[in-house]
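Readers of this paper often ask what the protein records in our data store actually look like. This encoding replaces a full spatial description with a residue-level series of whole-number codes. For reference, a complete record is included directly beneath this paragraph.
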Amino acid sequence: MISQSKTKSRHHLLIVSLLSLLAIAVSLPLVTHAYIGTYSRYISDDYCTAWTLGEKGVLQSQIYWYTGWSGRYSFTLFVNLMEALGPRIAQILPGFSLLVWIIGFVFLIRQILRSLNVQLDILPLLVVSTATVFAITDGVPNTFQSIYWLTGISTYTVPLVLAIFYGYWLMRQASRRTTGGLLKLNLGLSALIAFILGGFSETYVSIQTAMLTVTLVIALGYRRVSEVKRLRGLLLTGLVGSIASMIVILIAPGTGIRTGLISNPASLLVILQHSLMDLKIFLSLALKSQLPLLLVCGVVPGFFIILSSHESIQPSDDKPGQVWTWVLSVILVPFLMLLMMLASIVPYEYAVGSYPDARVLITTQAIMVVGIIVWSLVLGKFAIIFLRGRENRLRPWILTLLILVLGCTIFISRRSTIKILDGLDDIQYFAGSWDQRDTFLREASLSRLKDVTAASLNHMGGLDEIGYDPNEWINRCVAQYYELKTVVAK
């Protein structure tokens, strides 16, 4: 008996050690991203929004952008609040966003597991959450625009981060019995949150509306589950808020001006055909460049459920009638994932008529990774229905699989970290050059110079830099930001 206890203790200690190494492996690339992000500076559109904020203030700048260029009211407000903190926010936001994203996934995945009647310890939960963010960031087509650039983060990444907390909040409120005034307050909050999040971009409001619609339809099919009944009202008011957000963006005078610069959109059938082709291209590229990491994401969450099954599964889970529910879930999750990925592409095809820009595709990437993670959780739950009582015989295999996953993850993490660090010299040089030019232009402004010649910096992430024409939009924004008449490149 003592020997068995010692064996179990050693086995547990080994599992914890391997999980700790796995946590370090998936964290290393994200820590590297946060470090690289400290060399971020204002670039391209950042100058325009920063100047508008300084010149007009928060309220007037909201009106200025809504009527003159973009209906993305939440993005404008968020970037104004960030830039009100000063240029150094560009160095803080990348790492801070990644950290908050991980925290959000910890809450959301734990809530999903509770709905599956499963509980994971904090260490495996942290591994899954961190691995999710790692997989998303590792597959973005343009790292600089999606992770390091203030405008890119604010438009596409921040709403994805906040959406995780919205999803957690919806599930959390559905699990609570609320009535009367508190219920009305939650219904109103759901609509308000969806309205605020929808205002970040057309891409996000499209997937939010699609997701709320599909989830509401599914929830209407569950008639006897009390949590699902409570969720329906929250989803319905959230959908109302999301649709309202979409309308506010579409009717914005700035949206009309922006879309007027682009040729008339094709028919809905053609847009859908092109979007399906874009999705096929995205999936093909993802499978070629990310297959090992996506496989890890598909294995690890379900594997952790099986690993903890002897402690967390209740006898009621073995009811035969529930098997078909899990079979349906296993089929439904990847279908919904592909549907939401398509919804993230359609707005760009409608507005621009081409394959989405790299910075937009972080949304499609995030949907794919989260879909795989959720699918793995459902598969893990489905598997333990048939494995109950066999955990002891599976322990050697579980340990072997964990070692293989760790080795694969370390290899992927090392490769990803080296790839990230390959851009360190360039961004350090950019940051040093930017600081020198910033000092020079501020001194020129204090000296009351009007027409200034300054260095044109590296086009980081393919973004615009000042050129020789003082009337170019980027030249004008830089000049206005530093309170100069004109700025041109040397």
